[in-house]
Predict the structure.
Amino acid sequence: MSIFPVNATNRLFVDYFANGHAHTLLLRYPGAAGVPGSTFLETVDELLIESNQWMPSDYAWLGSRVSLAGSTVSNPFPFTPTAFSGANSTVPARAPQFVSFVGRSVNGIRARATFLGSSQNFEGGGTPYANYRLTSSEVAFIAAAVAILDGMGGCSVDGAAINWKPYANLGYSSYWQKAVRS
């Protein structure tokens, strides 16, 4: 658990639809001005386009919100990314899947960027999916996404720059498993 409150930094929330459910991607960014800069937003746009590789065909942008450091509310933000749509089939049984990029700030605080509703076929196992981790050396789109995250200029909850790991973890969200069951 972090020693920092969840609202210690500015946050951009990207609301999207995938595999039949609405989800939110949370990205933190530094800055006293509050609103994310154009370079940060352009890089977020690149990341959303790259994420088509592991997302379903119903993958769609729903909206964006910003919450300033110290705030407990978010407000709509006029960021509209390039239109995107996933490259994989929509499979309702894969709704709980996620692809999660992890890193650490220069101060050692964990950071994460998680895409829920992934439609990448990893339930069958086999290389490279057997260990529920895709590395940059195994999969080109993971290498591209990590490079985008490295260049984003985002921050961890402590406000420090992030060193992203050269892989993405794969898994199933227990919250969304329960939601699918109901």
Notes: The two ends are 30 Å apart (CA to CA). DSSP finds three helices and eight strands in the chain. Residues 10-181 form one domain.
